[in-house]
């Protein structure tokens, strides 16, 4: 997976300016934006034709980006996260009203993933924290696995598209509920 530091900086600048970008993740391409920017999140949801109520995933290359959300967890719960991070496992964690409604949707939990994808991890470090990242596809379509698919889906509607290639995993990230231990979506 090769990418340039210039691409990381361009992507981070686009996010900071309220843009919506496409970037590779562990298995598919993702659409990303600043989770604290309601207009950017609305634009991302509109591009995907995704309802706000479904909620979104927050992704970071640093577990510390989620420290406020993890402080109420017990030692065993924190260990479960640490055992799978960084990596392609997304955990549903109680948000205790610490994230905006436009991120958690109609849920009492928020989806968190500490990524091991080198570009995405570098992007979040350069941006200065977690980003919204959801599969790069309109609702009902297959997630994009290549940059050309992203461009076919979204054309020039995005503020940045790039960052190398995906991590090559066969399926989107696994999703697990931390409190119940239930597997919500199997991973690759």
From TrEMBL:
It catalyses: L-threonine + hydrogencarbonate + ATP = L-threonylcarbamoyladenylate + diphosphate + H2O. This is Threonylcarbamoyl-AMP synthase. Gene3D superfamilies: DHBP synthase. The gene is tsaC. Keywords: ATP-binding, Cytoplasm, Nucleotide-binding, Nucleotidyltransferase, Transferase, tRNA processing. Belongs to the SUA5 family. TsaC subfamily. Its EC number is 2.7.7.87. SUPFAM superfamilies: YrdC/RibB. It comes from Microbulbifer epialgicus. It comes from the Bacteria. It is found in: Cytoplasm. Required for the formation of a threonylcarbamoyl group on adenosine at position 37 (t(6)A37) in tRNAs that read codons beginning with adenine. Catalyzes the conversion of L-threonine, HCO(3)(-)/CO(2) and ATP to give threonylcarbamoyl-AMP (TC-AMP) as the acyladenylate intermediate, with the release of diphosphate. Residues 5-188 form the YrdC-like domain. GO terms for molecular function: L-threonylcarbamoyladenylate synthase.
């Amino acid at each position: 997976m090769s990418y340039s530091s210039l691409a990381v900086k361009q992507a981070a600048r686009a996010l900071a300016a309220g843009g919506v970008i496409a970037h590779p993740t562990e298995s598919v391409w993702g659409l990303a934006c600043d989770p604290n920017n309601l207009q950017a999140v609305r634009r991302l949801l509109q591009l995907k034709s995704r309802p706000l109520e479904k909620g979104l995933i927050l992704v970071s290359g640093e577990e510390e980006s989620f420290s406020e959300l993890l402080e109420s967890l017990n030692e065993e719960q924190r260990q479960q996260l640490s055992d799978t991070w960084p990596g392609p496992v997304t955990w549903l964690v109680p948000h205790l009203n610490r994230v905006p409604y436009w991120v958690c949707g109609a849920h009492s939990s928020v989806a968190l993933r500490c990524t091991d994808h080198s570009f995405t991890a570098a992007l979040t470090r350069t941006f200065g924290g977690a980003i919204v990242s959801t599969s790069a596809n309109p609702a009902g379509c297959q997630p994009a696995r290549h940059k050309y698919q992203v461009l076919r889906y979204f054309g020039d509607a995005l503020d940045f598209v790039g960052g190398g290639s995906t991590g090559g995993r066969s399926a989107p990230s696994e999703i697990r509920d931390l409190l119940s231990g239930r597997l919500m979506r199997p991973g690759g």
